[in-house]
Amino acid sequence: MAPQKTSPRFNPRGAKGPLGKRPATTLWYGLAFLLLLGLWQMFNFTSAGRAIPYSEFKALVKNGEVSDVTIGEQTIRGELRQAPANDSKASKQFTTTRVEDPKLTEELEAKQVKYSGEAINKWLPDLLGWIIPLVLFIGIWGFFFRRMSGAEGGVMSFARSKAKIYADDEVKVRFTDVAGVDEAEDELKEIVEFLKNPKKYTNLGGRIPKGVLLVGPPGTGKTLLARAVAGEAHVPFFSMSGSEFVEMFVGVGAARIRDLFQQAEAKAPCIVFIDELDALGKARVQSALGSHEEREQTLNQLLAEMDGFDSRKGVIIMGATNRPEVLDVALLRPGRFDRQVLVDKPDVKGREAILRIHTKAVKMAGDVDLRVIAARTAGFAGADLANLVNEAALLAARTDKTAVDIRDFESAIDRLIAGLEKKRVMSTKERKIVAYHESGHAIVATVLPGLDPVHKISIVQRGFGALGYTMQLPLEDRYLMTRGDLLSQLAVLLGGRTAEEIALGEISTGAQNDLQRATDIARAMVTEFGMSDALGAINYEGQKRARFLDIPLPPERGLYGEETAQRIDAEITRILSDAHNTARRILEENRGKLETVTTRLLEIEVMEGAELRALIGVAPATASPDTVPLPAAD
User: What positions carry a catalytic annotation?
Assistant: First the structure.
């Protein structure tokens, strides 16, 4: 899938600019106002002139040196007829503290001094003295309280939704940025049309689905598709992960669900996207150990909210998960997530389209054919292809190239499939064992009909413990496997261990992964696929694996008895023994070719499939490669 830029967030509660800027600006404005007010108070209430004692003031009055005075409640301010000689500033102004003196006015009249009283505004000192500090305290307290309970995850914000909200003009992703999921894209275009023109459906009495569930393997572009729907419809986009609803405090998840839907209704029409829905909507079960009450309360609130709001308002709930089998059935019933859209891994054409999107900003050499790269990357999801392009660009930059060529892409594929190449030195004995082992895989895979041709053989260490690998290149995307195909795969997996037996008369631990994979295939043939004549067309394992994740689920007990288990083990042993005998027969018939391939492999360490087929004498594959090479062994 194509990368997208992260859009800046905006405050859903009306703040201007980035979240948190407006409260801080208001606080600074308030502090600046108080500072100016304090300076004004100092300027107006500071006594003018030099301060003198009251006794000196009386002496100046008696000597006739005072021209006029202003008598206040606490101070007396006046002006001299002539500045004193000992005053460096030559100031006539003076001030003194008032003392209760009943004869002061008589003395002033006797010396013909002009005098007046001063009226003091009593409310202004009170305002500056305690009302403004109180207001300042309340303002600071309110500021910190908002910070503690703000939308940025403060200690008081548990009940608020943590959804990332993108405005209608902030989502830049379009359907042109999505490739390889044409079927899912067609399904979602109807949602876009409803958000743009809802009357087209409501006038006919139709009802758009309230919820759309995107299911598929990881990395196939489920989140990108949801963004593309919002970008095409030009509506706000609420994005949140299912794990963000549940906290350690009881009731928080349900409160966040309510807050999320309240915000969504205020912004309607809009899209609410809940990623990793399985973290929130797992099936509710009763067990002896109890259940997760908080998670169930959150799920119940989600179900209630989806039932409560009117879909005609234009609020579309979209979810994404790669584990739909664990979701509660109440989430999937009509009226909730009643439309399920599969976002599967792309085919060869889809992979080529995805590669074209990701290589737009990459300087490509003339020898790069994206159709060939798409053919060699079967099983890759959109995220895997994006990583492939990035790895190829990094490898080209490491060798100071001006453009990314085909060799960089091939090295990147090898690195992603088989792991990082190691520069360790093996002993001659171990290199010989690994060479025979990989030659056995390659010869059996080449001689048996109907198998994917070998693309590359290597005895260079890669990844975690892989001393060598044999990579096969499928001729086409395959969705079904016959019993003959699986039996041939078993023979190829056991070909490495068999080659060690024939050529060295000894076996090593290098076949551990081969035996594990072969045993898994044989057990699946017997217990899941019904490919055993002895046991018949019966599935003994039930739901063994997750639908989109290659992880085994906990085995179910009591599906069959001990006698059946013994028959299953015996049938698995027989299938593996037949595969082993097939590999032994092929390698014994081609004993000389095994030595030839092994000797050549020890010389060059990495052998291409064309050279292998030339050494064995097998005609090259007639069809062009269509998918990625997969490691056939350790």
Answer: 438
